[in-house]
Amino acid sequence: MISVQQLSGGYDGKKVVDDLSFSVEKGKITGIIGPNGSGKTTLMKMINGMLPFQSGEVLIKDKPISSYSAKELARIIAVLPQHAESSFDFTVREVVALGRYPFYKGLLKHSTPHDDEVVQNSMEFTGVEEFADKSILLLSGGERQRVLLAKALAQEPEILLLDEPTNHLDLAYQMKLMDLLKDWVEGCQLTVVAILHDLNIASLYCDQVLLLDKGKMKAIGKPGDIMDSRMLQSVYKTNLSRQEHPQKAKPLIALVPRQQDERKDLSEIVLEATPETMIFRSPFSLKTMSSALIGGGYQWANTFVNRHVNKNYNVDDAQKEFEDYLFSISLNPNDTVGMMTAARLQDAGMVSVEEKGVKLLVASTVGTGNAVDAGRSWERKDQPMPIGTINIWIFMEGKLTDEGFVQAMMTATEAKAGALRDYGIKDPVTGTPATGTSTDSVCIAATQNGEEMRYAGTITPAGKAIGKAVYQTVGTAIENYRKRMLQP
Amino acid sequence: MQKPSIRTYTKSKLIISYGAVLLLLCFAVALGISVGSIPIPLFHVIQILGAHIFHYPVPDNIDTSMVNIVMAIRFPRVVLAMLVGCALALSGTAFQGLLKNPLADPYTLGVSSGSALGAVIVLFFGIQLPFLGSFTLPVFSIIMGFLTLIGVIYFARLVQQNLSVETIILAGVLCSSFLGAVTSLLIALTGDELRQIIGWLLGSVSMRGWAYVELIAPFLIAGLLILLASARELNALSFGQQDARSIGVDVKKHTGLVLFGASLLTGSAVAVSGTIGFVGLVIPHMARMIWGVDHRHLLPLSMMLGGVFMVLVDLLARTIISPTELPIGVLTAIIGSPIFAVIFIRYRRKKVTT
Fold it and tell me: What are the TM regions of this chain, as residue ranges (chain B) (predicted)?
């Protein structure tokens, strides 16, 4: 649809855009991103014929852009400007009707019924029809933007160029506008090229993203390839971190504010223990990955609750009940990771490790009434289970990557299985050594400061420390339980 | 701000609008002829005019001296006032639309001063160009006005690329002062004809006769047609050149056409009546408030409203301290300046809030 070939250009003989080549396919949304002054708007102006270029060529539908008259071009390309201001109060309908200008014929430029119909349709499509006879000066920023979109649509273009379309719009309008565009791209095979400031909008809505840096093309490709934190950091000179969208197969970019690396020392974590709860309180937040009932998955937390419940505890909505419980003891569930267990808390094993630069605090509570061999659990029939849970809490100093978290989790689980095997805990159904129980939880909490730890596999220093500490604490907990059972 | 309810141009509303303004115009003309040092009954005025237009004899009960006053003195004067008002209002509307500037008019842009200098040069040096004859004066005025306009816009662009409202007006004021000074210099050098030229500079439509009507009429018609042919483009241009370009407007061509048309109008108006300010500022505003912004109708409606306004102001100018006549430009400035101030304040406030 659009083919840009070795394009260079700028103002007053200066090159703002330098030797760009890329093409845009029909029916796709292409986003142009890049820092201020990277040449986004200049490039846009050259694509829509507003600015003559110094060298190179822009082909629109395989013909050089210079071979089109202004009117011919306007029938193919419509532009949604960042802001169009008029000092006069045109009505919404008059503004939208301007979009029909390239179709008027003759000296008098009369409008036909078809023109009126297109104007009406585009007003309805963008939802501005209800204020068709209102002055545009009386509309809000979001409404005005939609009016301008309606005007662009009235041009019945094949290509729509947008310059920061979501600027000045609140969150809901940004989404609405982009959703509207997406519908239209899919419904009418429209081609969209948009300058976008918001990397997340670009990632979510674009089929193709062009990253500009100082007038040169840094990269072009699908959002998944362009939204690379290293590349973006080098272009934007800003601390950025890539995340995955929770529901779409698209990356998200998180800004990381500059901060003093505050001192976070595990020894500042305090344990408050009662027969009913073990509460670890930390003066700072830790990044956690856990399978806990409260605050499961990734989260930041400063309170960690291991709660003892009665064997007969049975509520429909355990999460809600747990949250209410946390409120009742003045804890905020949003800052808390919470697990439940029927095991006695006083049997808990706990250890603090500091070796080879790894600092750990690990606590485990163990109930094995419900031991399962994961490798053989498929042999079980659905039957009521006796109660029993192993909860493992691992606090560590250091900056864990996502893969580091997963490796730490694996290491902890394997160490737990090893401990169970060595203490002769068997799956009562299969008679084979148990690997855990059916309701185990693990929480890995890292301070995320200091040195980066990318690996926590079993033979890394971190992995060795985790394995040892988990093995020890699970073992201690089992021993404590057995000792208590022997007592009269 | 409460908006008038007549916002869109449905057919019936259009007919009513045009009909009303036309009626108002006829009434103003008749009133302008009727009132004066020798009052002539309105009914007689209509009879005399009717007789001349439809070529039947003037009824016997009307004195021939009265017919003479009407046909030789008052009617041409009123018609000239009307045409000047039309021309100024039209060019004001065009300037405001083109420059997206609610404060623009021939006077504030300095075009009037340029035209006036052109006219003074013709009068001072007694220039008479071959083939042009009596049209030397308006043609020279128009050319000078056009050149001034180009100069003002070029200068404003040097100061600020995007031509903000205030920059253009300041550039206009600067040019105005400079050209005004040159004009004054020329007048000072002439000595004897001083009073006459100053009177003319302040703006007047008295004692001009039909010759001056013939001088301005063709330019008014040409200017109107040129502007009407660019009416849709003016709508687009009032959102900015880039925006207009993106919907397919040939910006260069139409900007040139509008500037040329508006200069024709301003130059010819100044040539016949001197510098009359603020008509081109006030009238387009009133017209926009009543009829909206679509230039296809705003241009002709605003033009006729300008005619009405000018006839009435002229009427006021010659009756208010009769028998002495006030220069009409003085009166329009007295009426127009405060309105300019109000528009300016409102514009700035609106800009701050949006």
Answer: 12-34, 78-95, 107-127, 134-156, 168-189, 210-231, 257-286, 298-320, 326-345
